[in-house]
Amino acid sequence: MPHKPPHLRRLGFTLTELLAVVAATAALLTCATCLARASLLRDLTADDAARLGEVHRGMLRAAADRGSTHLPLPGLIRRKQIAGALPNGASGFVPGLGPEDLAQNNTANLFSSTIAGQFIHPNELVSPVESNPVVKVKQNYNHNAYNPTASNPTFWDPTFLANIFRLNDGQSTSVCHTSYAHLAIHGERKRLRWRSSAGSMQPLLGNRGTFKGATSGNNYTKSYSLLFHPPLDQWDGNLAFGDNHVSLEHSFSPQGTTHQCGSFGETPDNIFAWQDFSTCSSGSSTGGDTWMCISIGAPNSTTYAEAPEKLTDGTNPT
């Protein structure tokens, strides 16, 4: 068969060949995009761990600054009034004295008091993996709010909020200035575990979990906390432990964190679920359960309130 002259030979691609090239190029670009996204997510997870470790170190510095083995306790910073403390015999605030005000021991006051002491910065309290739009960095933190010698003293900026239970509706109080949950600073947990001496098995701060530690149903599947770290169909979270190491955990029951409960002995502990410490512990530091949350506070010595974070569809958890 005679060869075609060079000027008559086919140049370029057929339509089929062109479509194949386009498909191959798209596949390569998609693969590159997926790899880049995976790399970015890993970087964000690492940044989140670093930020969480710094928040815990700030609390350790705050404890050392006060010469205390307890991590910050707002109720021991802004204590209750003392009867007859004023020259006229009236009740009044006395710096460093007075009973602990348990109602002060909520999440907003915990973090705001630590910022006021300049042990942490507001930026450190919002995670780079945050998924809930109601969580925002506290801009223009008011350090001038600190006035411990006033007749009604203030020790932190009260406009720092932890209203994780609100919708992102634009109202001034519909904001949470922190991403992180912490050990419930109440009762035996506070007395025995909220300390600078807490060990390597005790989580103290971390990414949030589901409301009441739910592991199924809408409270789990529609929780913003599933969107922090890949894969996005299960919870993964960074936790800061008592020895200041930070670990990415894949379960609400980290290995080695157990709950000593009566005749059942030591069992894996769902760290986001409340269980009665008093009935499941002999009072030793090895008993009782861990309960981490964002809290509204402790109105008295027997109750402590967890803030119910809205679900991704805007409904309340149950």
Quick overview of this protein structure:
24% of the residues lie in helices and 10% in strands.
List the helices and strands and how they pair.
Layout: H1 15-65, H2 74-77, H3 107-116, E1 180-183, H4 187-192, E2 203-207, H5 218-221, E3 237-241, E4 246-249, E5 258-260, E6 266-268, E7 292-293, E8 295-297, E9 305-306
Antiparallel strand pairs: 1-2, 1-7, 2-3, 3-4, 5-6, 8-9
Give a quick account of the main beta sheet: strands, pairing sense, barrel closure. 5 strands, antiparallel
Query: Which strand-content bin applies to the residues?
Result: 5-15%
What is the end-to-end distance? Answer: 81 Å
Number of strands: 9
As a percent range, the share of helical residues equals: 10-25%
Uncertain spans, ≥5 residues at pLDDT below 50? 281-287
Q: Please state the structural category.
A: alpha+beta
User: Helix tally?
Assistant: 5
Number of domains: 1
H-E string: HHHEHEHEEEEEEE
As laid out across the biggest beta sheet, the strand order is 4-3-2-1-7
Could you tell me the radius of gyration in angstroms? 26 Å
Which geometry do the CA atoms define? globular
What is the mean pLDDT?
Answer: 87
